[in-house]
Design a protein that fits this description.
By secondary structure, the chain is α+β, with helices and mostly antiparallel strands. The protein contains eight helices and 22 strands. It has three domains: 2-97, OB fold (Dihydrolipoamide Acetyltransferase, E2P), CATH 2.40.50; 163-215, Dihydrolipoamide Transferase (Irregular); 237-453, Chloramphenicol Acetyltransferase. It has helices at 94-97, 168-176, 195-204, 235-250, 263-280, 287-300, 344-359, 437-453, and strands at 2-6, 16-22, 29-30, 35-40, 45-49, 54-59, 66-68, 72-77, 88-91, 221-222, 229-230, 253-261, 306-308, 313-315, 321-323, 325-327, 330-332, 335-336, 373-376, 396-400, 404-410, 417-431. Helix 6 (287-300) packs across helix 7 (344-359) and helix 6 packs across helix 8 (437-453). It is elongated, with a radius of gyration of 24 Å. It starts with a strand and ends in an 8-residue tail after the last helix. Mean pLDDT is 78; it is low at 93-126, 128-164 and 206-214.
């Protein structure tokens, strides 16, 4: 019989989706749970698996077309399709389909209402080490701007800096053919490497592949006078732009920065790092220490953990902290739910797991929903001071900047002293409808005092 595939429902608040890339062409066979099409919504981007095995008869929606959820997008003929039979309808259930043996088992990347988090995007990987030291990242990603959006198996060479992410199916195909993905030119949405790109590369051989470059100029249409290049805006980039405009236009924000002496925090981390990494098997960064201070301060200042409700202020009784992660095709803000209930060690483990699943496209819808406040580590990019844009509709966003060793004056009763200390700026943007400068300053002071109180001997468990 012939099956009509519908655009799947991925959440109550998601009403439409955009066809990003067809992974199969009319006439090609498709296995059950094999990726059929890439769908982009205002919450996630994902590869949708076929609910049946058969051949793709025709596509009913073109790439770039935006449709309401439940709209027909393709017709697939199964092996027992009788001639002239009317096609039946099959809805793709994203959650249940993941049980299949070849399903990617993922939901995707958060793309909208999370984009405006810092000037260039941060990472949950690591706060910058003090100047003069070597920064160590949680999973060997030196900086968000250069991080691949997937964790590539050892048998597959990792994508170079600036390379678009690979889907699970494409990654497996590259591994099967021992393809160096850095040598493959992506033709998918936003320069993404598709299955066809891998297969064409295998057929043509490495000699015909374009040489990889450290910085690839975006492709576009050159203006008539040759002075400009016009780059078509992808659906992902458009969604991010809309989210940024919404935050900037609807939230009257103000911002403030505070300098923090984190010498005690640096010493505490150094004293427990080896033991933690031996027990847990993962890296202990500065991030969980900062998270602990932030979530404790949010409990003391509940109006920072809130949203604007028009005629009321809506306080959030749970502290669900969004952690900004940069990816080649847009920012991701996975959410650490009930962050105030975890120890520093628990936060380290949870944040590491969340970041890894974000980079390997294994987030669920729950992982990207329900955030009440956002933390962004712009210091990983070398930033010393930033004015972040609030993650709509939250009441605030905090950035942590790079840690530097500096000579500072230490106040004393009789004689002031000059000492070398590890210093870090923290920057807060807040919704001025909900909080005034007094509440914002009180929150920042609370975060500062908690960070400065950390010292060797403190328990992280």
């Amino acid at each position: 019989m012939s099956i009509i595939i519908e655009l799947p429902h991925v959440g109550e608040s998601v009403v439409e989706g955009t066809i990003g890339k067809w992974l199969k062409k009319p006439g090609e066979t498709v296995k059950r749970y094999e990726p059929l099409v890439e769908i982009i919504t205002d919450k996630v981007t994902m590869e949708v698996p076929s609910p049946v095995e058969g051949s793709l008869v025709r596509v009913l929606a073109e790439e770039g077309e935006t449709l309401p959820m439940g709209a027909p997008i393709a017709e697939v003929a199964t092996a027992d399709s009788p001639e002239g039979a009317e096609p039946e309808t099959a809805s793709i259930e994203i959650e249940t389909a993941s049980a299949g043996p070849e399903s990617p088992g993922t939901t995707g990347y958060l793309l909208k209402n999370v984009a405006p988090v810092g000037p260039t995007g941060g990472s949950v990987v690591e706060l910058a080490e003090p100047s003069g030291t070597t920064a160590e990242t949680e999973t060997s990603h030196p900086a968000p701007s250069a991080a691949s959006a997937t964790t590539t198996p050892a048998a597959t060479p990792a994508a170079p800096s600036g390379q678009t992410r690979l889907s699970p199916a494409v990654r497996r195909l590259a591994q099967e053919h021992s393809v160096d993905v850095s040598q493959v030119q992506g033709t998918g949405l936003g320069g993404r490497i598709t299955r066809d790109d891998i297969l064409k590369f295998v057929e043509s051989g490495p000699a015909q592949a374009p040489a990889a470059t450290s910085a690839r100029r975006p492709e576009g249409e050159t203006s008539a006078d040759g002075d400009e290049t016009h780059i078509t805006v992808t659906p992902v980039r458009r969604m991010i732009a809309e989210a940024m405009v919404r935050s900037a236009s609807e939230i009257p924000s103000a911002w403030s920065t505070v300098e923090v002496d984190v010498s005690g925090l640096v010493a505490l981390r150094a004293s427990v790092r080896a033991e933690y990494e031996q027990k847990q098997g993962g890296s202990l960064t500065y991030l969980p220490f900062v998270i602990k201070a932030v979530v404790e301060a949010l409990k003391e200042f509940p109006t920072m953990n809130a949203t604007w409700g028009g005629d009321k202020i809506i306080l959030k009784n749970r502290v669900n902290l969004g952690l900004a992660v940069a990816a080649p095709d847009g920012l991701i803000v996975p959410v650490l739910h009930n962050a105030d209930q975890l120890s520093i060690a628990g936060l380290a483990s949870a944040a590491s797991d969340l970041a890894e699943r974000a980079r390997t496209k294994k987030l669920t819808l729950n992982d990207v929903q329900g955030g009440t406040f956002t933390l962004n580590n712009t210091g990983a990019l070398g930033s010393h001071l930033s004015g972040p844009i609030i993650n709509y509709p939250q009441a605030g966003i905090l950035t942590t900047e790079t840690i530097q060793k500096r000579a500072v004056v230490i106040p004393a009763d009789s004689n002031d002293a000059i000492a070398i200390r590890s210093m870090m700026n923290i920057c807060l943007a807040f919704d001025h409808r909900i909080n005034d400068g007094s509440e914002a300053s009180g929150f920042m002071s609370a975060v500062k005092s908690k960070l400065q109180a950390m010292a060797p001997g403190d328990s992280i468990y």
